[in-house]
Amino acid sequence: MEYKKSKGIRYKTGFSTKAIAKWDVPAINRILTNEVYIGTLQQGKREKINYKLNKVVSKDRVDWIEIEDNHEAIIDIHDFEIVQKLLRCDIKAKNVGEKADLFAGLLFCKDCNAQMTKKVDKRGKTPTIYYICSAYNKGLGCGRHSIKQEDLKIAVLEMIRHYIESLGKYEKISEKIREMEISYELFKKLDKRQEHTKKSKKKFELLKSSLYNDLKEGIISEDEFYDMREFYTNRIVESELILEKQNREITRLYKKSLGNQNFLVEIRKYRNISVLERGLLVRLIDKIYVLEDKRIEIHFNYDESLDVFDKINGYTNQEPAKAMEVV
């Protein structure tokens, strides 16, 4: 509403209760979780209980109507996934108007996978900020896993620099993949997960189809026939559900890895970084794990994409002719 006013649009509404309209939390959450911005059409989220009652209830997501790539996305899917991840984490500022902690939603205990909690030691001339395992802090077991914020900053900065430097080789691979215009069919072929599932499904289909002949020849009884048919049918249905899930995962990886290859150029801009920024951390890092001996492990958001690049590069180097046929 304020945006329309700023543009000189004569806009009035009876819902306005204050002189200046403000975004409320539910409205912001709806915007941040709305998949229409990444090109997905979603309908049928709610329904009336019956025609007599004017009460609307939310439906389970499995009952929604969803069409991916229905329209052009205006938000990068990788950025969208980062926001969803942060929304699931316990991120909050201590006081109104303050920003969230630099490592909020990114820091986890390596042993129990609980989020690390921030502590301030006010003893001494200057306060010392450090993090400990939240499970330990609540008395739920695990170790302390304490690490000072300054030590963490130094370690994370060094690992980010090393990571960005290692991305140099992927720029050539990315350019090669871009020129080949890798198809979705080749991408599916590179993913080996479906091979086992398809073989398993085919095996149960063959076993099921042979049951009737076994019954006719007296190899199995009628009760055994119905029991085994039900068993094989259930295994086939399970395989089909697994294949559907794998297809969704492959599609997600294809979009994330090959749909936007500009992330390498964007990240390389930070190769001379000297100070950590919250924006860079949430874009670059998935999780930072703290070990008991104050060592850390970093899982980067682009590890999946780089793994895909390695697989495609290895496949095209070994079987370039086949790769070009599929492309």
Automatic annotation (TrEMBL):
GO MF terms, alphabetically ordered: DNA binding; DNA strand exchange activity
Recombinase domain mapped to chain residues: 8-87
Organism: Streptococcus equi subsp. zooepidemicus Sz4is
One of the Pfam families matching this protein, by short name: DUF4368
Protein origin, superkingdom: Bacteria
Keyword DNA-binding part of the UniProt annotation: yes
InterPro entries: DNA_bind_recomb_sf (IPR038109), DNA_bind_recombinase_dom (IPR011109), DUF4368 (IPR025378), SSR_resolvase (IPR050639), Zn_ribbon_recom_dom (IPR025827)
Gene3D superfamilies attached to this UniProt entry: Putative Large Serine Recombinase, Chain B, Domain 2 (3.90.1750.20)
Keyword field contains DNA-binding: yes
Full protein name: Site-specific recombinase
Chain ranges passing through the membrane: none
Domain Recombinase zinc beta ribbon: 102-161
Keyword field: DNA recombination, DNA-binding
Record-annotated DUF4368 domain positions: 252-302
